[in-house]
Amino acid sequence: MEPIRFLHTADLHLDSPFKGMASAGPDELARLQQSTFAAFDRFIAYAVKERPDFIVIVGDLYDGEDRSLRAQIRFQQGMQQLQKVNIPVYLSYGNHDHLAGRWTRVSLPENVHVFSEQVEQKQLMIRDEKICLHGFSYPQRHVKESMIRQYPKASEGIHIGLLHGSVAGDAEHAVYAPFTISELQDKHYRYWALGHIHKRQVLSQEPPIVYPGNIQGRHRNEQGLKGFYDVSLTPINDSMKFVATSDVVFTTLTVSCKGIEYADDWISACQEAIDQLTAETGSVVVELVMEHTEGLTKDLAKAEAEWLDILREQYEAMEPFVWISAIEWPKNSYSVVPNSLLGPVEKTISSWETDDWNDLVKEVYSHKAGRYLEALTPADFERLKQQATALLENEMLKEG
Ligand SMILES: [Mn+2]
């Protein structure tokens, strides 16, 4: 039997505004705002070339509940391309593009089948196999109840569930339409196509319960390649191929400054590392993490922000696109005193109680002049603590 082949995607977040990228200039922001569309175009191009039997899109097609007109037009154009090559699309809306939002309506072609706000079943025939798809769209932004209870158990045919939601009790994400893995397994479907969580993950193999993640990262917490799954179901084994679509990859890059003394060498070292990265992944928003900065410390202390600006200028208006979101220097990077030395001393000082301090200063008070001194209060000890730490750091730095 020829496998049943479909593409599973979710969380397109078309026309995402990249609000978190406040550090980027207007040109960079405009470039980033194109990325969700570019990733979507890659998805459509792949489908047109590969001709899967059908496509499922599991919520959050649009980033905003107003479904920006630009996003709708681009989505419509993508669906029309799929219609031309006879690929049916089954989609549900999620918490970002719920049905209660106000938006200008743009019609979708006939190959597109939209799940309503009730859990419902849609059927199609693929080479004499009956495929049953189950899903629903969010009637409003917050769907807190467990929608999984409304999904029917599988009967004859190949059943696939579309569900935009999260595992009950998830501490990291806002929980929408919560479910447990065993609740999904109890339905005896062949595949669970999930959406909502932007991190790609396979929650179970038997049957596959899958978050494809979003198709384009939108901030530093959505790192690495993003994309969708190309799924083939056969009676013997299923295959799930991840296909990357991200136009700009959010990532972190460590740069060693070992042996570097001069700023221009540092720029070269960073550029070399970035060029190697872009050769592998294409455009990036990258956070640089510096290590072994001992040789650079004196110059750096004066011009950390300037160094970032100069490095950014090297990539202005370039493709692949590079935006350096931040440079992270090691803590105490200006210090030639190893943390391993300063740390324990500071820790000891801060652990001293009033009695310890009294013990320390008792010689001063036992001296003849002691009678002219006022007794020290706990607030005095606190001040002493801070001053001692600062003095220690300063004195040790001077040595370098
Ligand atoms: Mn989402």
UniProtKB/TrEMBL annotation:
Against SUPFAM superfamilies, the record matches this protein to: Metallo-dependent phosphatases (SSF56300)
Q: Indicate yes or no for the key word Transcription.
A: no
For whether the record's keyword set contains Chloroplast, the answer is no
Organism domain of life: Bacteria
Instruction: Report the residue ranges that make up the Calcineurin-like phosphoesterase domain in this protein.
Output: 4-199
Q: Which InterPro entries match?
A: Calcineurin-like_PHP, DNA_Repair-Maintenance_Comp, Metallo-depent_PP-like, Mre11_N, Pesterase_YhaO
Task: Name the chain's protein.
Answer: Calcineurin-like phosphoesterase domain-containing protein
Q: Which UniProt keywords apply?
A: Hydrolase
